[in-house]
C-alpha cells in the first residue's frame, strides 16, 4: 500500500492532519504539504508507547498514533481540537511542533480551518485506522484515562446489563431514588455513589421523552446533568460558575455521540465527576446560607482585591460580625479563605492556561510576581513553574 497516499486521502476526507514516518524518518506531513513548507521531524509531538494510542498536550489539543505493524511505518493524526481554536492553542501547537516563526501566520490560519471534535470521535478515528492498516480492532476502554478504565468498564457492563431499554414501559425515577442519588453527589462520596449505582436498577431514566432510543438517552442525560449540578454539586460546594460550565460541556459532548451505550457511559462518568468535585470542595458542616453566600462571592471574585468589608456587604452585616461567624462556621478566617481560593485559581491557570506568571499574578490581584511566587511556594512547597511542569506531565 502507498501509505503516504493513504495519509493524504485521510486528511482530504476528514480534515484531520496526518504525519507519516518510516523508521523515524519523516515521509509525509499533511500540514506541510498543503502549505508547501518544509516539515520538521519534531512534528511527532510525543513518543508512542502502545498501539494504537491517544495523547494530548492539554485537554483541548489531542493527538493519536497508529503503528503499521511489520512495516516500520508510524502514522500520527492530529491535532484535533476539542474546542474552537484560539490564538493561544495555535501558538502552543506551533511551539511544541517547532514550526519556524516564518510560517506561524500561515499555519495558524490553517489551524482555524481544522475541524473540532470530541474525545469519543477521536477514538473512533483511531480504531478505524487500526482496523484498516493492521486488520485488528482496539478495545474502546483502552483509550479512556479517567482512572482504572478496566474497572469502570466492568462496572458499566454490570450496570447496563441490569437496565432494560423498554421505551414504552420505563417508569420515571422515584423521588426517593433521585433524593438519594443527588444527596450522594452533594456529599462527595464516590465509593457510596458507585455502590448505589451498581445495586439499583433505577439508573436515571424517565418516561418516553423522545421518538428514538438515542434521542431518549440524550434527553435523559441533559436532565440528569442539570439536576446533578444544581441539586448535587453546587450544594456540595463546587463553584457555581464551574458547575454551569460543566453542564454545558457534558451536554455538548453528549450531542456528538452516536450510540445509546456511549451516552450512558458519559452519564456515568458525569455523575462520578460531579461527585468527586463536590468531595474536593466539601463544605464544613453547619455552614449557614449567609456564609455560603459569602463563600460564593469570594470564589467568583478571585481576580479582584477582596476586602472583609466588601464581603460583609453581601449579607448586610458588619465586618466584625462576619469575621466572627465565618471563623465559627468554616474554621477559617475570611482572609485565609480568600487566599485559599486564589491559590486554587492559580493552580488551574497554571495547568490549563497559557498565561505567564506575571499575568497570573496581576489577574489574581497580587502586588507583585515575586510575592505571588513566595505565597505559592509556601502553600505547595514548589514554585509555580514547577507546579505547571509537574501537573502537565
Overall mean confidence score, pLDDT = 80
Rg computed from alpha carbons, rounded to a whole number of angstroms: 24 Å
**Mind summarizing the main beta sheet?**
5 strands, antiparallel
Termini separation: 36 Å
Helical fraction = 55-70%
The rough form would be described as globular
Instruction: Give the helix tally.
Output: 18
Spatial strand sequence of the major β-sheet: 2-1-5-4-3
Report the uncertain regions.
145-171
- The helix/strand class is alpha+beta
What portion of the residues fall into strands of 2 or more residues?
A: 5-15%
Oligomer: single chain
The helix/strand series, from N terminus to C terminus, equals HEEHEEEHHHHHHHHHHHHHHHH
Total number of strands: 5
Layout of strands and helices, then pairs:
Elements: H1 3-14, E1 18-22, E2 25-29, H2 30-35, E3 53-58, E4 61-68, E5 73-81, H3 87-96, H4 104-113, H5 119-134, H6 149-160, H7 175-187, H8 190-199, H9 213-233, H10 240-255, H11 260-280, H12 289-300, H13 308-313, H14 319-330, H15 334-352, H16 357-363, H17 369-380, H18 384-392
Antiparallel strand pairs: 1-2, 1-5, 3-4, 4-5
Sum up the structure in keywords:
393 residues; 57% helix; alpha+beta; five-stranded antiparallel β-sheet; globular; 18 helices
Structure description:
With 393 residues, the chain is of the alpha+beta class. It has helices at residues 3-14, 30-35, 87-96, 104-113, 119-134, 149-160, 175-187, 190-199, 213-233, 240-255, 260-280, 289-300, 308-313, 319-330, 334-352, 357-363, 369-380, 384-392, and strands spanning 18-22, 25-29, 53-58, 61-68, 73-81. The chain has a five-stranded antiparallel β-sheet with strand order 2-1-5-4-3. A hairpin with a 4-residue loop joins strand 4 and strand 5 (73-81). The two termini are 36 Å apart. The model is unreliable at 145-171 (pLDDT under 50).
Amino acid at each position: 500500500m502507498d501509505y503516504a497516499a493513504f495519509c493524504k486521502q485521510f486528511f482530504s476526507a476528514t480534515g484531520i492532519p496526518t504525519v507519516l514516518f518510516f523508521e523515524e524518518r519523516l515521509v509525509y506531513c499533511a500540514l506541510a504539504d498543503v502549505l508547501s513548507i518544509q516539515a520538521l521531524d519534531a512534528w511527532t509531538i510525543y513518543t508512542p508507547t502502545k498501539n494504537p494510542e491517544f495523547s494530548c498536550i492539554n485537554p483541548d489539543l489531542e493527538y493519536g498514533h497508529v503503528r503499521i505493524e511489520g512495516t516500520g511505518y508510524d502514522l500520527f493524526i492530529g491535532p484535533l481540537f476539542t474546542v474552537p481554536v484560539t490564538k493561544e492553542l495555535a501558538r502552543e501547537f506551533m511551539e511544541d511542533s517547532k514550526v519556524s516563526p516564518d510560517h506561524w501566520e500561515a499555519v495558524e490560519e490553517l489551524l482555524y480551518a481544522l475541524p473540532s471534535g470530541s474525545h469519543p470521535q477521536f477514538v473512533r478515528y483511531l480504531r478505524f485506522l487500526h482496523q484498516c492498516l493492521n486488520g485488528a480492532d482496539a478495545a474502546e476502554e483502552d483509550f479512556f484515562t479517567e482512572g482504572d478504565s478496566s474497572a469502570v468498564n466492568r462496572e458499566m457492563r454490570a450496570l447496563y446489563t441490569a437496565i432494560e431499554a423498554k421505551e414504552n414501559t420505563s417508569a420515571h425515577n422515584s423521588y426517593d431514588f433521585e433524593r438519594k442519588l443527588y444527596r450522594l453527589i452533594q456529599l462527595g462520596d464516590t465509593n457510596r455513589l458507585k455502590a448505589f449505582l451498581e445495586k439499583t436498577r433505577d439508573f436515571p431514566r424517565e418516561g418516553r421523552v423522545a421518538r428514538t432510543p438515542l434521542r431518549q438517552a440524550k434527553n435523559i442525560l441533559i436532565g440528569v446533568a442539570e439536576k446533578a449540578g444544581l441539586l448535587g454539586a453546587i450544594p456540595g460546594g463546587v463553584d457555581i460558575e464551574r458547575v454551569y460550565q460543566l453542564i454545558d460541556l457534558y451536554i455538548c459532548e453528549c450531542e456528538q455521540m452516536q450510540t445509546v451505550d456511549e451516552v450512558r457511559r458519559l452519564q456515568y462518568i458525569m455523575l462520578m465527576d460531579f461527585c468527586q468535585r463536590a468531595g474536593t470542595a466539601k463544605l464544613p458542616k453547619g455552614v449557614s446560607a449567609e456564609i455560603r453566600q459569602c463563600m460564593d462571592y469570594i470564589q467568583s471574585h478571585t481576580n479582584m482585591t477582596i476586602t472583609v468589608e466588601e464581603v460583609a456587604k453581601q449579607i448586610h452585616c458588619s465586618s466584625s460580625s462576619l469575621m466572627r461567624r465565618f471563623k465559627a462556621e468554616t474554621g477559617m478566617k475570611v482572609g485565609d479563605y480568600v487566599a485559599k481560593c486564589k491559590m486554587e485559581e492559580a493552580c488551574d491557570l497554571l495547568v490549563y492556561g497559557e498565561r505567564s506568571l506575571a499575568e497570573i499574578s496581576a489577574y489574581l490581584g497580587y502586588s507583585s510576581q515575586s510575592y505571588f511566587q513566595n505565597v505559592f511556594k509556601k502553600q505547595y512547597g514548589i514554585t509555580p513553574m514547577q507546579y505547571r511542569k509537574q501537573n502537565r506531565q
